[in-house]
Amino acid sequence: MEPSKMTIEICRLALSACPMPVLIESDGGLVFANESAVSLLGAKDVQSLEGIPVRELLMPENPDRQEASESYSKAKAQAFNGERIPVFVAAKTIELNATPMIAYYLSVPGDDKRGARFAAASGAAAEVLMNLRKAGHDLNQPLTIISGKSQLLMLDADESDPLYKSLKSITDASFRMGEIVQSISRMIKSLGSVD
Q1: What is the mean pLDDT of the chain?
Q2: CA distance 145 to 27
Q3: Is 123 helix (H, G, I), strand (E, B) or coil?
Q4: Each residue of 8-32: pLDDT tens digit?
Q5: What are phi and psi of 168, to 5 degrees?
Q6: Is the dihedral of CA 49, 50, 53, 58 positive or negative?
Q7: Which of 8, 44, 133, 166 sees the fewest Cβ atoms within 10 Å?
């Protein structure tokens, strides 16, 4: 099942709120960068990064060891002002609508102001994912009750009864909401741990 536009937007909002710089690449170009990444790279805005290959923005410290997925490495982020910023990069292959993508999570080492701000970001990103998981679980409980009770009430109603139509709408909406929650859950699992 494909994730809905609402599911995709919820995940985009969650990643946008993350203080850790996040870049997502597909077909050799950026398709997503959050505000933290825009700030780190000194870009004008998110749109100015779209389509740029990640290899132009992140130069691995050890170019001989370049794995695209499931890798953790040191690199230099090439800022728009020419500055090369040392970063740690965690790359994870994800999939959306059968399209493979690579999510890059960046953190800046060191104890300077920027480094301190991003050093805690890994924990913040994990907390965002944990809160999304919890929200999905919290939504599933009442959805199960609503769906079950409306289905039981439908058994006692005649199909021509306006009550039946209302109950059918409630049941259909609860199933749709359940699909959205499951889609969010699958996307969270595909992101895995960012610690």
Answers
A1: 78
A2: 43
A3: helix
A4: 677 777 777 778 888 999 988 999 8
A5: -65, -40
A6: positive
A7: 44
